[in-house]
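Can't attach files on this board, so I'm pasting raw text. These are the components:
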Amino acid sequence: MTVDILFQAFALVFRWDVILIILASGLFGMFVGAMPGLTATMATALLIPVTFFMDPVPALGAIVTATAMAIFAGDIPAAMLRMPGTPASAAYTDESYLMGRKGQLDLNLGTNLVTSVLGGLIGVAILVLAAPALAEFALAFSSFEYFWLAALGLTCAVFLATNDPLKGFASLFLGLGLGTIGIDPAAGFPRFTFGSVELMQGVSFIPAMIGMFAISELLRGVTSMQGSGEVVLQQVGNVFKGVGGVLRRYWVNFLRGSGIGVVIGALPGAGADIAAWISYAVSKRFSKEPEKFGTGHVEGIVDAGAANNSALAAAWIPALVFGIPGDSITAIVIGVLYMKGMNPGPTVFLQNPQLIYAVFMIFVLANLLMLPLGWAIIKSAKQVLRVPKNILLPMILIFCVVGSYAMTNSVYGIIIMLVLGIFAFMLEENGFPIAPIILGLVLGEMFEQNFITSMIKSDGSFLAFFARPIAGMLGVATIAIWLIMLWRMGPWSKARPAAV
Amino acid sequence: MRFNDLVSGAILIAVALIVIVLTLNFPAFPGQNYGPAVFPRLLAGLLMLCGLVMGIRGFAAWRAGEPLAEVPSWARDPANIVSALLVLAAALAYIFVLDAVGFVPLTLVVLLVLFLWFKVRVPVAVVTALVAAFGINWFFASLMRVPLPRGLMDWIL
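---
Top answer:
Structure tokens for the assembled complex are below.
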């Protein structure tokens, strides 16, 4: 990397319009994150139509900023209302709420904010260091390596995202199946289009996302509107008091949480919410005072608060380097990258390094911006949390409709949104996870292409899939995870999938 | 509706069978063993396997007394069902009459109906719907250049 590229990136980021967009999307992300029921993924899906007409850097900057803010802001209603603002805060919602009940609301929110900022920065640091190095390495990859990478990513999505692998795999195959609609990548034959010209280019990606993440969430929202009464909120004082002491005491927890977050985030398919669950569990396991967990103890919050924000940045590593999403947010980002002509993969680091470094800069900027914005949203939480759902939900519906329409400039986008929204709602009602469908849909074409290319190259011999060293290693790792899952599904396993 | 895994599994197998039938008329290319039908058929096979195992699991649960289908708790309140249907109806309205009616008039109607059903006070509902419909139209149609249909707006404004 030359200094020249850094200057180019700097010039792309530090323009008043880009900074303004970052500020606005930061506020948007804070609001969406703080509203229980609206997730960071939904924030991303709703942002895409707006970013569609922007240059690549502000468009990606808006997504980066909004999601980072949303993951932190989810901690606020968790502490105040015992309702996680996003699933990434669910792991320690009870702990946060109990801290608030003990009169430590300020300390809790302050710890959440500071660990989120610092954890996010650690995630960015790893992203900046690891992604270009990995990209150089990945230049030598052939279709066999990419086939196994995609297979490993899809497997991890099932392995980590659900306690019922059977339904996880069913979701994954359905998603991959949706991905086969349209012109096939090997021979150019239109599949499952039923004569529709619009289906020939495949299931339109962003409307599908809006449907599966926003419409299904909306349906759940309107069907649980009854009984959400007035909430009483506590007054917030000085949130930064005592945070330094907590960090000095639990700095090991902070580093461990950030580290777990980076690893889970970088693994394809699992993101901030799973990172928070795992790091909280690890924290309890290795704590000197595990009996204090679940009574309003700050220790686990340091771990998990750092983990979910560091995971967010680390999820961009596989997304940028291999085009394999690290979580459901980067699954949407990959769609955006293609739309902006920055096809993810190792070559993007050679062709457009200034854009990549501009995104990295925005990541740092977003995490620094989180401190003042987070403080502001904590102070105004009383007003934000009072925004009535009965006005908010119909408005979100309109945004979904307009967003889907804008992606195709026709009602075709709205049709895709509605059909997949109902589909996702029904599947979730029956315990099928949604994340594997999204990953299948995103990775489907790449997966199939590499599979068919590899099959043609090897003339149908599966041994060739293991002949190259890295492909072989990835293949063995993937198959090992399959075996673990089979073992877990067996009748001798005690961990039976819970009925959902 | 919440189904027993026996039903879910059967649906998965049915979907897989339909996919396989559809791939039957995909063309084969001479000298090319791996054509457009390979991947969908592989997926259908795996899906069928999932369906089969799920069916067996569901059958055991059904024998143990689990009903084949049950109504989830949210659906026991008819008001919730109306809410869900209203959201779906709103999306359908956009699909079928957006081009004829236009974005602003349709959004006004949709928002007003939803607001009033969700018991937003009438003056608040009217003002919010007006601001939202014109505001969103201004943002997307004027600023973002999305060709939102004008419909009836053409002879009103």
